[in-house]
């Protein structure tokens, strides 16, 4: 970054949700952007941290893809095999807008309502449950795919209400009500 004369402030993370906490609480008044070197989960934490800041401040977000899947980076045209290119794009100040999905849900019946934000895909039901089961067992291939298969085998439709507003829909409100095995809210430019 010397060629761009950029000063870097490094925040080290050491636990799950630490990126979320840093993005929520860091003094960003003097920062030009917040960049995460990571994958989809790391970027998810960064987006959620910025979106839930108590002071409402925001800065552009950057992503240097170094995760497992890097689907978010791919949707932005940034590829893992060229980390240096990703860093140069950030250093040059290349910015493009993207929408953020706001998702309200109750993790279980009667529980308090939760809000999360997504820069790419939100899924629930069967696909979300399989993803969660696989993530909990990511260090063992056998456990990862075995638990994912078991979740798929025992899954049943659940009653949901999906309400879509804003974005390309404008002020129009769309509702889908019924028993679904899975549902996706996709938000990518491609």
What does this structure look like?
By secondary structure, this protein is α+β, with helices and mostly antiparallel strands. The protein contains six helices and eight strands, in the order H-E-H-E-H-H-E-E-E-H-H-E-E-E. Helix content is 31%, strand content 23%. Strands 1-2 form a two-stranded parallel sheet. A two-stranded antiparallel sheet has the order 3-4. Strands 5-8 form a two-stranded antiparallel ribbon. Strand 1 (34-38), helix 2 and strand 2 (61-65) form a beta-alpha-beta unit. Helix 1 (18-25) runs parallel beside helix 2 and helix 5 (126-136) runs antiparallel to helix 6 (141-154). The longest helix is centred in the C-terminal third of the chain and has 14 residues, at 141-154. The protein is globular. The model has no long low-confidence stretch (mean pLDDT 82).
Query: Termini separation (Å)?
Result: 30 Å
Computed structural class: alpha+beta
What's the rounded overall pLDDT mean?
Answer: 82
Oligomeric composition of the shown chains: single chain
Q: Fraction of residues in helices? A: 25-40%
- What Rg is obtained from the alpha carbons, in whole angstroms? 18 Å
Contiguous helical run count: 6
Low-pLDDT regions: none
Strand order of the largest sheet: 1-2
Overall outline: globular
Any key phrases for this structure?
190 residues; alpha+beta; two-stranded parallel ribbon
Q: What's the SSE blueprint?
A:
Blueprint: H1 18-25, E1 34-38, H2 40-51, E2 61-65, H3 71-75, H4 83-91, E3 101-105, E4 114-118, E5 121-125, H5 126-136, H6 141-154, E6 158-164, E7 174-180, E8 182-186
